């Protein structure tokens, strides 16, 4: 597959940061960790990976803005392009030696996400998309799952944890969803949940209280794979609200209806 110059830049940056994450993952027990907030560890690995991504992306596209989970915001001089980066999505998995984590890089032009990359350094699965050009896993074009019945669906979600999210509301949603679907999963990396939805492994994914860097790249992956993405009210306001529902057209509609029902219970 011939990648565009833009995807080449993003891929090179991700692979360089991944080498650092891989080394640190191998030594996860020796990692220095500091506590950012309840349940939210920021590792030395996290910061190292973000530094690499910031340096590489800024070198290739000087002037673009940069929003990274660890380093805050840099408006840049370009005025219209911004990188939205999570150097390590799935930090808790990483710290526990669970190989379900990823680098996530989204590129926003004005209010539109125009490129996205999600890379799992352990499995070497590289998910990429550019607006209007489709989504890919390595060289293979992606399509969301074709299943139409909730009863056949494998669904991923996020769980409120230590001080984050509304547990009561989640449990209402959970109980309505779980009795209608083939399986419910919680993997712990929003970026990979979205990439796996784009790849048709998951039929639906929904979560609340996310940050832009968790989902910027994944939103484009799902859309470019033919899927539907919205916030939990069906609007295109995932980044401002932090809520997301993704799947094929039917699954997306069905899940939105269940969430609506849960909000009335
Ligand atoms: C987290 C993961 C997780 C989601 C959390 C995120 P982090 O990101 O995406 O799946 O449930 O809300 O904060 O902290 O591992 O980068
Ligand atoms: Ca994250
Ligand atoms: Ca992170």
Describe it for me?
This protein is α+β, with helices and mostly antiparallel strands and 265 residues long. The chain has two domains: 5-141, Fructose-1,6-Bisphosphatase, Chain A, domain 1 (2-Layer Sandwich), CATH 3.30.540; 150-264, D-Maltodextrin-Binding Protein, domain 2 (3-Layer(aba) Sandwich), CATH 3.40.190. 37% of the residues lie in helices and 27% in strands. The chain contains eight helices and 15 strands. It has helices at residues 5-26, 44-60, 91-95, 167-178, 190-198, 212-224, 238-241, 249-264, and strands at residues 33-37, 40-43, 65-68, 72-74, 81-89, 102-109, 112-120, 125-130, 135-137, 140-141, 154-157, 183-185, 204-207, 228-230, 244-247. The strands form three sheets. It has an eight-stranded mixed beta sheet with strand order 4-3-5-6-7-8-9-10, with helices on both faces. The chain has a five-stranded mixed beta sheet with strand order 12-11-13-15-14, sandwiched between helices. A two-stranded antiparallel ribbon has the order 1-2. A hairpin with a 3-residue loop joins strand 3 (65-68) and strand 4. It is globular and about 50 Å long. The protein starts with a helix and ends with a helix. Mean pLDDT is 91; it is low at 34-42. One calcium ion binds at residues 86, 89, 190, 213-214.
Which SSEs are present, and which pair or pack?
Blueprint: H1 5-26, E1 33-37, E2 40-43, H2 44-60, E3 65-68, E4 72-74, E5 81-89, H3 91-95, E6 102-109, E7 112-120, E8 125-130, E9 135-137, E10 140-141, E11 154-157, H4 167-178, E12 183-185, H5 190-198, E13 204-207, H6 212-224, E14 228-230, H7 238-241, E15 244-247, H8 249-264
Parallel strand pairs: 3-5, 11-12, 11-13
Antiparallel strand pairs: 1-2, 3-4, 5-6, 6-7, 7-8, 8-9, 9-10, 13-15, 14-15
The structure holds D-MYO-inositol-1-phosphate (IPD) and calcium ion (2 copies).
